Amino acid sequence: MLKVLQSSDIENLFLNHLPIAVAIFDSEMRYLACSRRWMLDYGIQDQCIIGKSHYEIFPEIDGRIRDIHRRVLAGESLSCDAEAFHRLDGSVDWVEWDMVPWHGPAGEIAGAILFTRVVNDLVRMRQEAVTLRTELNLLIDSARQYAISMFDPDGQVVLWNKGAERLYGWSEAEALGKSISFFFENRASDEEQVRSWLQTALVSGPVVERSWRKRKDGTSFFGEVNISRIEDGDGLLVGYSTVVRDITEEYSQLRRIEASEAQLRAILDTVPDAMVTINENGIVQSFSAAAQQLFGYSPDEVIGKNVAMLMDEPDAQHHDEYLKRYLATGHRHIIGNMRCVNGRRKDGTLFPHELYIGEAISRDSRVFTGFLRDLTKRREAEAKFQELQSELIHISRVSAIGTMATALAHELNQPLTAIANYVQSSAILLAPYEDEAVATVRGAMEEAAREALRAGAIVRRLREFVARGDLERVIVRPCDLVAQANALGAVGSKARGVVCVLNVPDSLPCVLVDRVQIQQVLLNLLRNALDALDDTGVIVIGGEVMGNMLHLSMMDNGPGIAPQLEAELFEPFVTSKATGMGIGLAISRTIIEAHGGRLWYEKVDGGGAAFHFTLPIAETGDA
């Protein structure tokens, strides 16, 4: 069975069996890896050198060699056929070496690779030179993931490794002698661009660029190329080396990520809630379109600044302290919870909003995202709702007092009149008697009669005042009256499961009424229905034209009205509720009759109650 080797196994196998000494360093000349031959050649096989400085392992390295290292780490590829290396024990090793930079994923120089061979006599140096060149070529050809090639000063191919054959599809024989621009896309500007890269490599050092390349079969790939100049021992230009890596998949993934980010940004820009992201230092990282509209700032005015500029005191003053405390303790007070706070706009005005903060943690950073929903309109609606409720409650109390006064006036007027009559009659009967005591009693009874008549007059005037109460009539659409009353009276009914159906067409003619009082009637009828229903109840409010009157009805599927109460249903102090006062329907009838309409009750077939009332239709003045 074929054994599949991991990349680490291949690396170890490569380094353990490479016949030359190879060491790989980072940008600080610390060992990342080295071959077994390296350890043997320099007598350090018993030491663990990975992670240690090259200068710690070889303290005899002088300033000249350190300068070579700095040049390689700056981008040069250097080599030497034979060089004397003086050891601390006085011995001398002749060493051939090649040192090249290696590049990270982003094209940056991440370190150096040093190839060395110890040669201690001239014959061996000459023999080893051929072997070293062969081994280097094998090393180049073994790098099958990289297309390694060399071009002469005119840009013609003089070296073409197996990786280049695999990546481009042209064999070494087919590629030798071709111009470097041949391997790019067929565009008129390719030749000029490639010449520009070669000139840059010649004058300024290695060039790293990314562009589309073409293969022999006509397909293309997106490649990353490193172009470096090659000099001989006298510093004269020999040619250029190129290392090409296929990054098509990486490029496609990057484009997909960019497209995904653009799509996400577009979605977030259309979300009605404002979104602000900050880092763990409280600095704004992004500012959505909704946030711009909400606060009045442009992104350039906010991004890069502390988010406290969007807050009211004391949150603005203590925000950084809160954030540091959370990062230190991990104890959540705000994150993951909804809270209501005040925000500060660019013009300095404050506004209430709901704030929800989420947290995202990656390996290297932490981001906090705040979602904000403006509560200004909701608070205004709540204030208007409370004002309307207070107004209705006030009118209800006034109406209740008026109805009670009317009822009391009606009930007390007759007893007071009877008392006055009885007292006056008794005084007349005692008139013939001249006795002093009788005269005193007669005077007291006459005074009592006068006071009784006076009390009756007061009650009568009170009744007349209530009966003549002025109405603030306005022209109102019936559908608006019913909708507003339903919004007030049916609060919580949906949570209970009660369904309220409104069948009041928009096309119904307007009525001339006291809006608040008629809403009080609708509210009273609606609450009576809700009190009588269970969680499966249904209330239907309907409206239609009846002659020159508007007819409104409210029907429910509850238990209905007890038969013994039907006859006195609209009388004061008659109720079926354990805690009711029995004046709601009496008040409602008084209001409807004061408007020139009528209020009545009907049974519903199959159970339930139906209340009906009429209102005068407003005259529009049309001919």
From TrEMBL:
Domain PAS: 132-205, 260-330
UniProtKB keywords: ATP-binding, Kinase, Nucleotide-binding, Phosphoprotein, Transferase, Two-component regulatory system
Stored SUPFAM superfamilies: ATPase domain of HSP90 chaperone/DNA topoisomerase II/histidine kinase, Homodimeric domain of signal transducing histidine kinase, PYP-like sensor domain (PAS domain)
Residue ranges constituting the PAC domain according to the UniProt record: 206-259
Domain Histidine kinase, first and last residues per copy: 407-619
Chain ranges passing through the membrane: none
Listed EC numbers: 2.7.13.3
Gene3D superfamilies cross-referenced by the UniProt entry: 1.10.287.130, 6.10.250.2580, Histidine kinase-like ATPase, C-terminal domain (3.30.565.10), PAS domain (3.30.450.20)
Phosphoprotein found in the keyword field: yes
Pfam families according to UniProt: HATPase_c (PF02518), PAS (PF00989), PAS_4 (PF08448), PAS_9 (PF13426)
Entry-linked PROSITE patterns: HIS_KIN, PAC, PAS
EC class name: transferase
InterPro entries, A to Z: HATPase_C_sf, HATPase_dom, His_kinase_dom, HisK_dim/P_dom, HisK_dim/P_sf, PAS, PAS-assoc_C, PAS-like_dom_sf
Catalytic activity: ATP + protein L-histidine = ADP + protein N-phospho-L-histidine
PANTHER family: PEROXIDE STRESS-ACTIVATED HISTIDINE KINASE MAK3 (PTHR43065:SF10), SENSOR HISTIDINE KINASE (PTHR43065)
Protein name per UniProt: histidine kinase
SMART domains, per database record: HATPase_c, HisKA, PAS
